[in-house]
Design brief:
With 141 residues, the protein is α+β, with helices and mostly antiparallel strands. It contains 2 helices and 3 strands. Helix 1 runs antiparallel to helix 2.
Length: 141
């Protein structure tokens, strides 16, 4: 009778398979973690952009409603302003811009040839890159 040779070579193969599967799983989880980190960073950058757009739109809309005092909505204030209310709104707006956006923030608006241009610059929270938003509207009476 013939005996089959003992299976000495196959010892520990299950452990090697488990280690390989664990390595593949860990690389997959690492990739998912990096992707999640990028998504969180993009979401915070997007939220800052959306906040800047809302604030710029707010100042432009306020100037459009109060066209007679459009010169009062410049930051920094230029010329003469006959409306204390408009001046106060502009100062309040500037304070909210500085408080709402991350990093170094600069807000300004310029009135030239009946066009009001609002410029908001801030530093991205995660990336550290400088972001700028510039919007313009016609404020002719």
């Amino acid at each position: 009778m013939k005996r089959s040779p003992p299976r000495l070579r196959s010892r520990g193969i299950g452990l090697i398979d488990a280690l390989i599967a664990l390595a593949i799983l860990s690389f997959g989880l690492l990739g998912m973690t990096r992707m999640q980190t990028n998504l969180v960073r993009q979401a915070s950058e997007s939220q800052a952009r959306m906040t800047a757009v809302q604030l710029a739109d707010e100042l432009l809309s306020t100037a459009l409603v109060d066209v007679d005092n459009a010169a009062c909505y410049t930051v920094p204030a230029t010329g003469t302003c006959d409306s204390d209310v408009a001046e106060e709104r502009t100062e309040d707006w500037e304070a909210r811009v500085l408080a709402s956006l991350p990093g170094d923030v600069e807000a300004g608006s310029v009135l030239a040839d009946d066009l009001l241009t609002v410029t908001i610059t801030w530093t991205g929270k995660e990336s550290g890159d400088t972001r700028t938003l510039e919007v313009t509207t016609d404020v002719r009476p």
